[in-house]
Amino acid sequence: MKEWLSRFLDYLQNTRNASPYTVKNYGNDIGQFLDYCQTEGVHSFDQVTRALLRRYLAELDALDYARASIARRVSELRSFGDFLMREAVWEQNTFRLVSAPRIPKRLPHYLSIAEIEALLMVPDVSTPLGLRNRALVEVMYAAGLRVSEVVGLDVADVDLAQAQVRVMGKGSKERVGLLGRPAVRAVQAYLAVGRPELLRRRPTDALWLNHRGGRLSVRGVALVLDQLGQQAGIRTHVSPHVIRHSFATHLLDGGADLRIVQELLGHADLTTTQIYTHVSQSRAREVYMRAHPRAQEEGRVDTVHRPIRDNGSVRATD
Q1: Is 21 a catalytic residue?
Q2: Which of 39, 53, 288, 312 has its CA 20 to 30 A from that of 247?
Q3: Does 126 lie in the same domain as 217?
Q4: Does residue 16 have an active-site annotation?
């Protein structure tokens, strides 16, 4: 059974162009299920039944696995089952006979425009790392990039004349991220002064460098944003996802078309982008509740339609 898992992981990596992170997760999670099968005396896929799957999911629940984690495992097993069917190992995908737990949709966290501006004021641009950090945040917010896309950028991917960057998104799909003038100026300053000082004569094509002159890692970007957020006094934990969510939310709040935002984010499916419309609607409700005179308190005096006296007569205002 584990031999078929190895073949499935090869398929994900070489045919589906899945990221190493995705391949690792699939391997760990499906491998965990195959280990469970072994303890239950199940040594072939023909012995995998709906009852076995239900017991496995019940055990995960008893071990206090999050519902989202259990749902992810069900999804991964279903994909594995589809692969086994294509390879004629199974006649039907038994993994599709069980339901995944329902997960309540959570609205993504995002920063206000004022918080973004506060974040950008933190880096000390008199230092190489400060120049890098300012440019890094500017580019992430301007283009709405995934953290994997950010760390994968090379100097050659940046076109400041056209104010854009070329990124490799999910599934090895290339797209263009747009930059505003502040982002262009920040990258120019970083390329002119910050990056050469960080390079330390170590030849590399990487755009973002760490203090040792190597390519900045995913963990490095997350650490930079976390530290900047704390220094800016922002209560929301600032992460690459939060910057990307802020990008999308601010575009929609500004009146951008949903399909344009989908294209800029690199979403294959419009439904993935639609969650941001809920964020904007949520924000609209907050503004309404705060600003409308009749939104909250019942019985409050309505000054708009109160009768007023004019030369001894009574008339209503418009």
Answers
A1: no
A2: 288
A3: yes
A4: no
**Burial of 179: CB neighbours in 10 Å, binned 0-12, 13-18, 19+:** buried
Q: Is 276 designated active site? A: yes
Q: Is 244 a known active-site residue?
A: yes
Q: Which of 236, 270, 294 is where one domain is finished?
A: 236
- The single residue of 73, 134, 244, 250 carrying the catalytic annotation is 244
Residue pLDDT tens, the chain, 318 long:
889 999 999 998 888 888 788 889 999 999 999 999 999 998 888 899 999 999 999 999 888 888 888 989 999 999 999 999 999 888 889 999 888 887 766 666 889 999 999 999 999 999 999 999 999 999 999 988 989 899 999 999 999 999 999 987 666 677 888 899 999 999 999 999 999 999 977 789 999 999 999 999 999 999 999 999 999 999 889 999 999 888 888 887 777 777 777 777 776 666 666 666 666 666 656 656 666 666 665 544 443 444 434 444 333 333
Catalytic, out of 146, 195, 245, 250: 146
Domain C-terminal end among 51, 72, 97: 97
3-state class (DSSP) for residue 165? strand
The reply to whether 26 belongs to the active site is: no
Backbone torsions φ then ψ of 154, nearest 5 degrees: -105, 165
Q: What does the block give as tokens for 278?
A: 């809920």
- Residue 248 placed within a domain: no
Q: Are residues 124 and 230 in the same domain?
A: yes
User: Does 144 share its domain with 227?
Assistant: yes
The domain that holds 231 is classified in CATH as: 1.10.443.10
SS in 3 state form for 173-230? Answer: CEEEEECCHHHHHHHHHHHHHHHHHHHCCCCCCECCECCCCCECCHHHHHHHHHHHHH
The structural domain count of the chain equals 2
CATH no. for residue 45? 1.10.150.130
Note the pTM of the prediction, 2 decimals: 0.60
Helix (H/G/I), strand (E/B), else coil: 57: helix
> Which of 73, 195, 245, 267 is flagged as catalytic?
267
Q: Is residue 241 part of a domain?
A: no
Residue 203 lies in a domain: yes
Catalytic hit among 72, 96, 166, 241? 241
7, 170, 185, 283: the active-site residue: 170
